[in-house]
Design a protein that fits this description.
The complex is a heterodimer of chains A (about 110) and B (about 120).
Chain A: E1 4-7, E2 10-13, E3 19-25, E4 31-38, E5 42-49, E6 56-57, E7 64-68, E8 74-78, E9 87-94, E10 103-104, E11 108-112
Parallel strand pairs in A: 2-11
Antiparallel strand pairs in A: 1-3, 3-8, 4-5, 4-9, 5-6, 7-8, 9-10, 9-11
Chain B: E1 4-7, E2 10-14, E3 20-25, E4 30-38, E5 45-50, E6 56-59, E7 62-67, E8 72-77, E9 86-94, E10 105-107, E11 111-116
Parallel strand pairs in B: 2-11
Antiparallel strand pairs in B: 1-3, 3-8, 4-5, 4-9, 6-7, 7-8, 9-10, 9-11
Classes of the chains: A mainly beta (about 110), B mainly beta (about 120).
Chain lengths: ~110, ~120
């Protein structure tokens, strides 16, 4: 039982390049989330998905797209990376209820030059 | 109204001290308040959580105090140890699901705690 896994762990991009961050969970959770973590700003929600086939915008969705490929996988895509997207990205999942524990992946550290 | 304000931003205590981290919220629809602990290079992990029907919850050396009327809650770490050095995030979740039927957390900005040996 690996929990929430993310790939890659580190990535360096040049401005304008595109990439996809991958996330998978093996806990049969319904809800999945993408956050970015920046110094002094905590964890900010980018996109989330309540179930397979549904996605919704969070606080900071501009410049990102997501795909909930199936119940296990939720990917985050940067179409044209900008230096402002330099951050640590975390994927998380939760079963269903507000009181269910939200489990986080180990993160992807992305640098955009 | 969706914000959760966390303080202090950083905290240094001696081993055995009792660091206290405070959070405040405005949205009265929030009804679940978890605390997450994050070690460097790792994802956050749930530490302890409380609902507003109780004023205090203890789990080991960690205690949440909750003041519903003031809309504030705090984390106390008893007999703190160097191994407690980490970043701590408070969060809040509403009892009302989103239109797509799930729940979102609003996170505080985090407190970096260092416990000196």
């Amino acid at each position: 039982n690996a929990g929430v896994t993310q790939t890659p762990k580190f990535q360096v991009l040049k401005t304008g390049q595109s990439m996809t961050l991958q996330c998978a969970q093996d806990m049969n959770h319904n809800s999945m989330y993408w956050y970015r973590q920046d110094p002094g700003m905590g964890l900010r929600l980018i996109y989330y998905s309540a179930s397979e086939g549904t996605t919704d915008k969070g606080e900071v969705p501009n410049g990102y797209n997501v795909s909930r490929l199936n119940k296990r996988e939720f990917s985050l895509r940067l179409e044209s990376a900008a230096p402002s997207q330099t951050s640590v990205y975390f994927c998380a999942s939760r079963a269903k209820l507000t009181t269910d524990t939200q489990y986080f992946g180990p993160g992807t550290r992305l640098t955009v030059l | 109204q969706q914000q959760v304000k966390q303080s202090p931003q950083s905290l240094i205590v001696q081993k055995g001290g009792i660091p206290i981290i405070n959070c405040a919220y405005e949205n009265t629809a929030f009804d679940y308040f978890p605390w997450y602990q994050q070690f460097p290079g790792k994802g956050p992990a749930l530490l302890i959580a409380i609902r507003p029907d109780v004023s205090e919850k203890k789990e080991g050396r960690f205690t949440i105090s909750f003041n519903k009327s003031a809309k504030q809650f705090s984390l106390h770490i008893m007999d703190s140890q160097p191994g407690d050095s980490a970043t701590y995030f408070c969060a809040a979740s509403s009892d009302r699901p989103t239109t797509s039927g799930t729940y979102k957390y609003i996170f505080g900005t985090g407190t970096r705690l260092k416990v000196l040996a």
